[in-house]
Amino acid sequence: MAGLDADGRLQSVLEEARRRSLVGGLPMAKQIAHSEGFLRALLLESFEGPVLELGSGGGLPGLVLALEDRDLQLVLVDSARRSVEFLCWAVEELQLSARVEVVKVRAEQIGREDQYRGSFAAVVARSFAPPAVTAECAAPLLRVGGRLIVSEPPATASPVNALEVSPSEATDHPVESLPAESRWPVAGCLQLGLAPELALRDPFGFAVLRQVSRCPDKFPRRTGIPAKRPIFS
């Protein structure tokens, strides 16, 4: 976990994000705790390779992940100039530039760039877009075996059908299978090579999907089309 000095710097940086209206008005401690839930989801299994955050905005959860896991290589993606300017400043302020890259680009575009396509062990998304859009933008970025970890609304954060978890993966928080009636329909996700896998109640809700096969070359579609014509609902 981050040391006291890092905690203080993080609080200062996130308050600046709030001043710039890049993070919401919930208590900062709760927003940081939510971000730490992403880290617990990531660490349910060992992984090697970089992680990408879609729609990084004010740096939650990305900055928290980078500070609390000193081995993590992270790419923060956002298309908004003011978010990218803030994130570049925050990465320097928190002395993370050796491990954290900030990229100003549309999510549909970065998934078609050879440097990034199929390169990531995980993609995380806090409040990026509806499920179909998030899945279509994330799948091209994931290597086979990689995971998509998405924050779920409270109403969908009570999954069923508990899975067995090995002792090395045990946590104090329920890890369960994603129900068939979830926001991530199996048939829709498999079009992208993604398979819905787990739900984590942390107490925040997270959905975990696995890239089980290479994402077809036709995805992601051109900018704006995933939202206009989602591949599932």
- The end-to-end distance, rounded to whole angstroms, is 38 Å
- The strand order across the widest sheet is 3-2-1-4-5-8-7-6
CATH superfamily label: Vaccinia Virus protein VP39
**Basic shape:** globular
Which structural class should the secondary elements be placed in?
alpha/beta
The CATH topology annotation reads as Rossmann fold
What CATH first level would be assigned?
Alpha Beta
What is the H-and-E element order?
HHEHEHEHEHEEHEEH
Helical amount? 25-40%
Distinct helical segment count? 8
Sheet of most strands:
8 strands, mixed
Describe it for me?
- This protein has 233 residues and is of the alpha/beta class.
- It has a single domain (4-228), classed as Rossmann fold, CATH 3.40.50.
- It is 31% helix and 21% strand.
- The protein is built from eight helices and eight strands; from the N terminus they run ααβαβαβαβαββαββα.
- It has helices spanning 4-19, 28-42, 62-68, 81-93, 107-110, 131-138, 186-190, 225-228, and strands spanning 51-54, 74-78, 100-104, 120-125, 142-152, 175-177, 194-201, 205-211.
- An eight-stranded mixed sheet has the order 3-2-1-4-5-8-7-6, sandwiched between helices.
- Strand 4 (120-125), helix 6 (131-138) and strand 5 (142-152) form a beta-alpha-beta unit.
- The radius of gyration is 17 Å and the shape is globular.
- The termini are far apart.
- Residues 156-171 have low confidence and may be disordered.
